[in-house]
Write a sequence for this structure.
């Protein structure tokens, strides 16, 4: 696996969530209404649903998240042009759609964001007869809680949130979340600056669901996080945590799998594990926003990505988990045998998708503020 | 007696129109919007329903949030004091001893503004991390054996904040001291005052407008700061700025976020009024 091209997407970790937010809070409200478009796009992107060019697909995606052959293959097959634009956080994507910024045909929101987008009515219902390749999706990645009938989305790639560590500092076998509470590594541990992920880790360690809304369970998880805090160097974004392990400031970091693999690509002594008590399983999903200029082509594109061969090429490039069952035989052996990408069934069973909890989001947020103020 | 007509003329109105429009559009309208939002009700998935809902303000008085308010103001006050202690001698030196280097020295104070603040903050991350210049230097000098934790500590936050806001203190101090008539010092010394006395009885009181202006310019942005605690402090503490940001981006509670922002603005206004009144309004004149 070390020789294989590992091209992590810098973005699942919300590249500089701190800073993106910096730009936002600087002019608090207005920005939410019109997030600056950092990714210049051509004129085709501002169609506003006005018919659109039948020969052009506007694909709005995380950066470095398609194989080199993916887009040219589609352009050739259907004799069309694909205009790609990139975003770096789900919130940025949502803000753009809520502000009426259409002009995109296919977007790739993560699990919980699909749920938010469905509830805030920005997604178009998929015409499934136009996506026959939907059958290729692994049943494990169909009908997930955020879209039970796949009426709005089809899984693009998936991954986990686990622990990246440096075995030169961390002694013994690391199997679960307990190591993040180990006093021997005081000042060398970093958790994600993400309320749901960090509470999720604490809940999983205690054997609870990471979508728990049970007050007693949450109290317990919060207590544990307050106990953990003196041992922490800080709460970081996922790519930042990976960099800090590479640089030696951290021995252990809570990261998204892609950032773990990119750290390993820089220093192959590092190890990424999926904790045995279970962890987050996240998915990114293709969807079509309301007002898409070219919904017909969008369906064709989704169908194309779900093709076995195309799907295999995609995952062989991204090195993320491939949700396409038909593509699986064509996945690189090294990746296929890597249990940190495709965990064994007994671990997979313990993975959970983060669900949007609606009102309870505020309760989580308040608890995280309490932890940080402790 | 000649009747002094207040100087309203078409010309003046024409000159004021652009700035009025600017302030109205980009200051007043957003502020009123936040005020309106702060009485609204947040939707579960973002967005807001306007109305009259004072509960957002009641939430502000939660002890957890009050503690954050106090912490923020203490940090901002400490930073203001640090900037004053560092900035005053420097401004004094440039104003009185700068000679023909004055312009260049003042330019050097402003040079950092030529680069984006975020890039400069990241430079501190690079300097202070385990393999950074600071640690390497300490080891080279034999002061430490291995890397020590410099980055993501309260000290790093203090350093970063003082670094970021020091120029805002130096510039008004320099402006106040530069206008100072050196003959006053000579007169005081001729009348038998020691240097120490001259400074505290003559120079410092006359530089008060600069001290006040500089303190206000440093205190306000320090109280709203949230990037530095995240970048250099590892997000270990929450300040009001972080709290506001969280409400908008993570908790999707725009109404509460707006109420917090309004409260911060009101508290800052109160703090400044208190400060100015305490030290003397008249001293602000001349800045």
């Amino acid at each position: 696996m070390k020789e294989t091209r590992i091209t992590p997407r810098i973005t699942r970790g919300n590249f500089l969530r701190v800073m993106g937010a910096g730009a936002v809070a600087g002019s608090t409200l207005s920005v939410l209404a019109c997030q600056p478009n950092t990714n210049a796009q051509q004129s085709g992107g501002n169609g506003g649903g006005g018919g659109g060019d039948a020969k052009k697909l506007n694909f709005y995606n995380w950066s470095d998240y398609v194989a080199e052959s993916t887009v040219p293959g589609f352009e050739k097959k259907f004799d069309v042009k694909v205009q790609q634009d990139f975003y770096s956080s789900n919130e940025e994507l949502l803000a753009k759609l809520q502000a009426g910024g259409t002009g995109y045909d296919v977007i790739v929101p993560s699990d919980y964001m699909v749920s938010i987008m469905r509830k805030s009515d920005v997604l178009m219902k998929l015409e499934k007869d136009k996506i026959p390749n939907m059958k290729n999706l692994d049943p494990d990645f169909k009908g997930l809680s955020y879209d039970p009938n796949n009426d709005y989305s089809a899984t693009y790639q998936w991954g986990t949130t686990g622990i990246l560590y440096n075995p030169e500092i961390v002694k013994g076998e690391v199997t679960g979340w307990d190591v993040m509470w180990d006093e021997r590594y005081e000042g060398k541990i970093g958790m994600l600056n993400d309320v749901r992920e960090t509470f999720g880790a604490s809940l999983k360690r205690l054997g609870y669901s990471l979508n728990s809304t049970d007050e007693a369970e949450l109290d317990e998880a919060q207590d544990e996080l307050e106990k953990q805090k003196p041992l922490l160097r800080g709460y970081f974004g996922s790519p930042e945590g990976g960099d800090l392990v590479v640089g030696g400031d951290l021995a252990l970091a809570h990261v998204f799998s892609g950032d773990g693999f990119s750290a390993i690509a820089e220093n192959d002594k590092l190890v990424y594990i999926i904790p045995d008590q279970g962890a987050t399983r996240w998915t990114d999903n293709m969807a079509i926003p309301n007002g898409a200029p070219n919904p017909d082509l969008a369906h064709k594109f989704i169908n194309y990505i779900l093709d076995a061969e195309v799907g295999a090429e995609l995952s062989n490039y991204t090195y993320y988990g491939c949700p396409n069952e038909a593509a699986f035989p064509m996945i690189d052996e090294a990746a296929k045998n890597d249990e940190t990408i495709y965990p064994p069934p007994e671990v997979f069973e313990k993975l959970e998708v983060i669900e949007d909890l609606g009102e309870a989001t505020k309760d989580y947020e308040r608890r995280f503020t309490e932890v940080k103020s402790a | 007696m000649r009747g002094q007509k207040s100087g309203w003329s078409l010309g003046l109105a024409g000159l004021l129109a652009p700035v009025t429009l600017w302030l109205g559009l980009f200051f007043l309208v957003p502020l009123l919007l936040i005020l309106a939002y702060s009485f609204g009700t947040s939707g579960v998935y973002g967005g807001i329903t306007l109305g009259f809902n004072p509960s957002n303000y009641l939430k502000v008085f939660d002890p957890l949030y009050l503690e954050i308010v106090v912490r923020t103001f203490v940090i901002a006050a400490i930073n203001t004091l640090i900037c004053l202690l560092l900035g005053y001698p420097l401004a004094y030196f440039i104003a009185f001893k700068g000679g023909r280097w004055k312009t260049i020295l003042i330019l050097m104070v402003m040079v950092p503004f030529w680069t984006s603040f975020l890039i400069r903050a990241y430079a501190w991350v690079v300097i202070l991390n385990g393999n950074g210049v600071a640690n390497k230097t300490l080891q080279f000098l034999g002061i430490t054996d291995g890397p020590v934790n410099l980055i993501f500590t309260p000290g790093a936050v203090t350093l970063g904040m003082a670094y970021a806001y020091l120029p805002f203190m130096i510039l008004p101090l320099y402006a106040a001291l530069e206008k100072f008539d050196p003959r006053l010092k000579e007169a005081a010394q001729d009348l038998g005052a020691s240097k120490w006395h001259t400074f505290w009885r003559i120079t410092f009181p006359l530089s008060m407008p600069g001290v006040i202006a500089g303190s206000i310019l440093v205190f306000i942005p320090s109280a709203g700061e949230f990037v530095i605690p995240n970048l250099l402090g590892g997000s270990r503490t929450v300040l009001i700025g972080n709290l506001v940001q969280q409400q908008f981006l993570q908790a999707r509670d725009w109404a509460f976020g707006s109420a917090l922002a309004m409260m911060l603005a009101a508290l800052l206004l109160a703090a400044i009024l208190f400060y100015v009144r305490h030290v003397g309004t008249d001293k602000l004149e001349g800045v």
